[in-house]
């Protein structure tokens, strides 16, 4: 029998979360962002849940090829544009739309040979200071692109640094608007946090670009939880108890003896460790479900195992179901965000870090 650990991708939940994003920005078309192999879910596994999107956004050309191989004929957007001159050939061949964020990318386009002019998304740096033209360079970049026979439609794009927090998007939006005011073309500005928190009449957005919300994690946790936004988990990481043990007061558990029992208790050993993608940084007390009942981890996470407190689940035994994040068989939910904060990180990192050795199944 294989080691009892498995991840499940929930197709209906992907569909549902995509609808949540759509309802939040009803006038916009929705890119489903599937970069990083669909945030660790696997593009091929998530695809069925995402085919209701208006477009697929990603940043790896190999992933774009995979999306086309799945039969997707709709828009595909390269969020970082091309990295190399030769990438433009694939853009022409696969009909990819691509971001243009720097002069070098315009230079590559200018010498690209294609029969099919490309649709491009001119990226404005409105304050994130990673990719994009400075506001005062936008007009000349637009003019240069507009003069190229290789370019068909030009859309405008920016990305927010603080859509999930108190700083918000107003300052960046003002910069974006001023830089693009009289330029024609469609606009796309919103990631998940902006889509959920800042969609409204003031926000001109023809396309929204939700990623994390589609995968059921709240972009602004802990201010809001996934339940607050009506989002459902799209990935469950589940394992089984492979041993139970009673320990006395004063007994320690695991490497470094970081946990010491202050009363006699029962613990369970779970077939999941950091080599499966469960963060080693999760301390004692990280929430976990055993047979759908909430309890906690005790002691350090090791490579292949983690130990849990079985006192709240007296009937638990070898073979009992342990939900590390996601949905248990009894319907109970442990949001990935709750586990992520215990490790000092975000749900994104946990999903993307699901290890290759974990078998994955797709469910309805
Ligand atoms: C990753 C990404 C998104 C999606 O961000 P989420 O926070 O996951 O919604 C949107 N736009 C760009 C440019 C991105 O790189």
From TrEMBL:
Q: What are the residue boundaries of the Alanine racemase C-terminal domain, all occurrences included? A: 234-363
For the modification N6-(pyridoxal phosphate)lysine, which residues carry it?
A: 35
What is the role of the protein in this entry?
Answer: Catalyzes the interconversion of L-alanine and D-alanine. May also act on other amino acids.
Give the HAMAP family listed for this entry.
Answer: Ala_racemase (MF_01201)
Q: Which UniProt keywords apply?
A: Isomerase, Pyridoxal phosphate
Q: What is this protein called?
A: Alanine racemase
CDD domains in the record: PLPDE_III_AR_proteobact (cd06827)
EC number from the UniProt entry: 5.1.1.1
């Amino acid at each position: 029998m294989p080691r009892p650990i498995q991840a499940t991708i929930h197709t209906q939940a992907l569909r549902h979360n995509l609808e949540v994003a759509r309802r939040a920005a009803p006038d916009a078309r929705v890119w489903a962002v599937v970069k990083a192999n669909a945030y660790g879910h696997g593009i091929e596994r998530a695809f069925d849940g995402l085919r209701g999107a208006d477009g697929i956004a990603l940043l790896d050309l190999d992933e774009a090829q995979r999306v086309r191989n799945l039969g997707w004929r709709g828009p595909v957007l390269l969020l970082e544009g091309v990295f190399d001159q030769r990438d433009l050939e694939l853009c022409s061949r696969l009909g990819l739309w691509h971001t243009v964020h720097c002069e070098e990318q315009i230079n590559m386009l200018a010498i690209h040979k294609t029969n099919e002019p490309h649709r491009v998304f001119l990226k404005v740096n409105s304050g994130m200071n990673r990719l994009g033209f400075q506001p005062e360079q936008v007009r000349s970049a637009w003019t240069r692109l507009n003069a190229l026979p290789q370019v068909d439609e030009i859309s405008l794009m920016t990305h927010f640094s603080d859509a999930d927090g108190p700083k918000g998007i107003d300052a960046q939006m003002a910069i974006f608007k001023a830089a693009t005011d009289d330029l024609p073309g469609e606009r796309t500005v919103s990631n998940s946090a902006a889509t959920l928190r800042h969609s409204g009449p003031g926000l001109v957005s023809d396309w929204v670009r939700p990623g994390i919300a589609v995968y059921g994690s709240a972009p602004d946790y802990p201010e809001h939880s996934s339940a607050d936004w009506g989002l459902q988990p799209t990935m469950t990481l589940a394992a089984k108890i492979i041993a139970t043990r009673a320990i006395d007061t004063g007994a320690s558990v695991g490497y470094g003896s970081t946990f010491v029992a202050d009363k006699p208790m029962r613990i369970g050993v779970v077939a999941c460790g950091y080599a499966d993608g469960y963060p080693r940084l999760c301390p004692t007390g990280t929430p976990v479900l055993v047979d759908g009942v909430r309890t906690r981890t005790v002691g350090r996470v090791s490579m292949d195992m983690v130990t849990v407190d079985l006192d709240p689940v007296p009937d638990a035994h070898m073979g009992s179901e342990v939900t590390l994040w996601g949905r248990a068989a009894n319907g109970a939910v442990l949001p990935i965000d709750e586990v992520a904060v215990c490790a000092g990180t975000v749900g994104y990192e946990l999903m993307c870090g699901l290890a290759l050795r974990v078998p994955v199944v797709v469910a309805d």
